[in-house]
Structures are given as structure tokens and as C-alpha cells.
Amino acid sequence: MRFKEKPVWASMYGGGMLNGKEELADKTFDFLKKAMSIDEEDFLSLRGPRELKDGEWRYKYDQDGDIFEFSGYEEIYYQMN
């Protein structure tokens, strides 16, 4: 993102799925959107809640830093404890 032609924000995101699980892509991204729409109280998240369980789906997220510089890590599990 630029302001007055100078860069003020940059972000990089990478993700993927395990080989052989491609048929779960649509359901996985639906669940990810649900997780990202949750505003967890007392957690200034730059991505999603710390954890979300919904039936056989589980989302986990952790981050370090603040709005000025942070890194985050998220995982989505299906049919796992």
C-alpha cells in the first residue's frame, strides 16, 4: 500500500493444503472465512481468533508483534482432535 507514492504497508501471505486433500478446498476456505469474521474479546488479532472449533473443524492462530510489525501462524484441522 502506498500513501503519496511512498510505501507505507506491505504484507506477505502464504498457504497451502496437504496433497491428496484438494477436494476439501471449498469447505476449508468457507471455514477460514468464518474464523476470520470472529472478533475475539481481549485479543488484538491481525488475522483470526486464537482458536475456533466447529463440528469436525478446528482453527488455531498465533501471532507475535503488533500492527507495526508482526508475524502470524495459522492452521486448520479437519476430523482431528
UniProtKB/TrEMBL annotation:
Domain DUF5680: 4-79
InterPro entries in alphabetical order: DUF5680 (IPR043735)
A Pfam family per the record: DUF5680
Top-rank lineage group of the source organism: Bacteria
Name the UniProt record assigns to this protein: DUF5680 domain-containing protein
